[in-house]
Amino acid sequence: IRVNCSETGDVQNDEVDASIWSDDITERVSKFGVSAFPAMQIAAYLGYKTLYLIGCDGGYKPVQDGVDLSHFDGAYRAFDAYPDYDYSRLNDALQIAHQIAQENCDRLGIEIINLSPNSKVKAHKFGNLEDVL
Fold first, then answer.
1. pTM of this prediction?
2. CA–CA separation, 16 and 107 (whole Å)
């Protein structure tokens, strides 16, 4: 299967809507916003009825003293090539992506539970990891 991984919409112009979500990943997968967005589309397509998010803290920050504080590995260098990157735009896209995922999962009867303590992602219901384990 060849998947068309597309990114649609413009956060700065408020032109992003729920239609960027793909119910059929054999047709396309939207990578808009954050890596969790295509992962949720894939999980929904595979038939999962509950999606647990772990490590979806949100709130990207600029690299400080050569350390990426926004990812689990401080050596991750995703934004080194963009020293003037607009993190507020990225954070806006993150929130929109999660909201769109929530709207579509509601439509599909899929529950999303954010198990990330102190997460800035507010689109989903929060839960405790200990309760799931």
1. 0.83
2. 18
